[in-house]
Here is the input.
Amino acid sequence: MTDTSSRGDELRATIDRLVRPIEDWPEPGITFRDITPLLGDARALADVVDGLTELALLAGPVDAVLGIEARGFLFGPSIALRLGVGLVPVRKVGKLPAVSLSTAYDLEYGSAVLEMHADALQPGARVLVVDDVLATGGTMRAAADLVRQAQGTVAGNLVMIELLALGGQASLAPTGCASLRSY
Here is the structure.
């Protein structure tokens, strides 16, 4: 986020205060960003959703918001409602009941598979991909692959926090990823 206003400063300070780093979780060498204290503060949560929605508007009109399991589900529905579009859940393998598209990807501490219902998007749909944290970019690249499989286009990627040292932003070129806070 390039917002240097006092409102942007206040939002970054709120994120700093309420998102706690947990060292060596889920395994040694990983610093997990725990957003649960922020989610428990109604004012802070509303401010973050407002900030994310403002960033979402920069992507231009979208046909759907794609929320990535699990923490993308926490912000995606609110953003979708504010944009007046539906939410498409992207789930871990085996969680969706209908015919699904799937893609395997690597993350900073292993690998995983994501799925999306095959009929979740209309061909040509412009989609905003939402998650909580951008680390290496693997999860967002996997979500983009699902959108491409469904013949849609990623209009933008959006997170609350970007972990700069892990280089995820560069891996999402040319679309990139907007964030409220970078560490």
Q: What stands out?
A: The domain at 6-182 is CATH 3.40.50.2020 (Rossmann fold).
